[in-house]
Amino acid sequence: MDADLRILGRMSSINVRKVLWTCDEIGLAYDREDWGRGFASTADPEFLAKNPHGLIPVIEDEAGVLWESNTICRYLAAKHGRTDLLPASPRERAGVEQWMDWQATELNASWRYVFFALVRRDPAFQDKQKIREGADGWNAQMGVLEKRLAETGAFVTGATFTLADVVLGLVVNRWLATPITRPDYPAISAYLERLRERPRFLKYTGDGLP
């Protein structure tokens, strides 16, 4: 494919999948290259020249280089006028962004240890006490999402699907794919069924992608 948008990052990365899903929602053509775990090293000077943090994804388009997955998703939606995914109204846009920012901060911090321990099976993440604490912390943060979804009865920011659902839908999938004991969260279960009606959600959570 010869496209104006180039995406650097492996498919198994949850952050790369955020960007790919966003591209598919918009209908964008792109070229993707595998970088990261098991592929081209993000410590390579070529990559570090694009993202000094050595993290995926990175995109390149006619405007230059951009990194940070949630920022990339917002950029692409705004660039292509997709106000359904990212509203133009400052207040409505902030409502989407606050949940995206929560995903990137408090929620991500809660699942890191337990996910690397139980799914990635990383030897550096095998402290049993920290695994238990990580599972409890992750479940507590998912309780915040449960409460929100019980309030909206549909998607994270209300009745319509937005970028907040792209980034949080992938975390719901990861939470369910991780072998921990989980509370019964009926609003999240109903939310998952709504997401499963969207082919693009299935595309980026299928084949065992956690």
From TrEMBL:
Family the UniProt entry places it in: Belongs to the GST superfamily.
Domain GST C-terminal: 89-210
Keyword Transferase applies: yes
Keyword entries, A-Z: Transferase
Protein name according to UniProt: Glutathione S-transferase
Pfam families per the UniProt record, alphabetical: GST_C_2, GST_N_3
Cross-referenced Gene3D superfamilies: 1.20.1050.10, Glutaredoxin
Record GO terms (molecular function): transferase activity
Domain (GST N-terminal) ranges: 3-84
UniProt cross-references to SUPFAM superfamilies, sorted A to Z: GST C-terminal domain-like, Thioredoxin-like
